[in-house]
Amino acid sequence: MPPRTRSPLPLSRAQARRIWLRAQRLDEAAPFGAGPQATPAAIAHLGYVQIDTINVIERCHHHILFSRIPDYRREHLVQAQTHDKTVLEYWTHALSYVPAADLRYLLPAMKRHRAEPKRWSAVGSREDSRKLLARIRREGALTIRDIDSEELIEKTHLWASKKPSKGLLERAFYDGELVISARAGMLKTYELIERHFGWEKRPAPATERQVTAHRLDRALRAQGVVSLESICHLDAPAKAAVAELIAARVRRRELVPVALEGAATQAHWAPPALLEAACAPPDGDRIHILSPFDPLVIQRRRLAAFFGYEHRFEAYLPAQKRVFGYFGLPLLAGDRFVAVADLKTDRAARKLLVQRWTWLEPDPPAQLRRAVDDAMHRFERFQLA
Question: Looking at the predicted structure, is the pLDDT value of residue 151 above 50?
Answer without folding.
Answer: no
